[in-house]
Input
Amino acid sequence: MRRISEVADFQMANEARPCPCDIGDRFEYGGLGQEVQVEHIKAYVCKPSVSTEKAVIVIQDIFGWQLPNTRYVVDMLAANGYTAICPDFFVGKEPWNPSDDWSTFGEWLKTRDARKIDKEADVVLNYLKQQCSTKKIGVVGFCWGGIVVHHLMMKYPELKAGVSVYGIIRDSDDRYKLLNPTFFIFGEKDNVIPLDQVTLLEQQLKQHCKVDYRVKIYPGQTHGFVHRKREDINPEDKPYIEEARKNMISWLNKYI
Output
């Protein structure tokens, strides 16, 4: 079994019809954790080598909880001392496939509302508290999962820190009322989230948010760069990929 410190093998996705969120460089990575059943949800869990009372929930992008890239991040967090869990927030529904017809994406997304996941969040939080003896919990999410993080950080005070990676709630007046410290990561050249929306988010957080927050834009980076871009074949992007991952872990370490 491969260690998290080793460089994973990858293959470039061959997309005949790209979806709005490019799958990028897919990791060929088996993972160091295991799949478990948590009530009605399946989940991937990886635990650190020593016992801990700290945990991080990792929330998938549109490509689902089994994407090797996301599991790589789960294992990375475990290597940094957290019990890390990536639940299937689609609850058995099929993730988006790069070969799917982009014209159907809107209909597909309607049945996977990023702000209607409270039932699943409750189940996962209970599992961490009851089965993993967790006392401090944070959350990280990518793309669709970044929207979920934004939602959860306005609703669940037990989540002590959040990292929303290229995800943003755009159509809610109360989206600036964060309950605990939240870090927003964006790419400068993200064609999914225009920079004017990022600017607006930061301006409104400055006016209305009463807890610590950070909004950071990484130069030259596109949507998915933190977990779906292979740094060894994108040398110009490597510093930003590594910086974003370090920033993510530092934020969690600071508040959990």
About this structure: Residues 1-19 have pLDDT under 50 and may be disordered. The helical segments are 68-79, 105-110, 118-131, 144-152, 195-208, 225-228, 238-255. DSSP finds seven helices and ten strands in the chain.
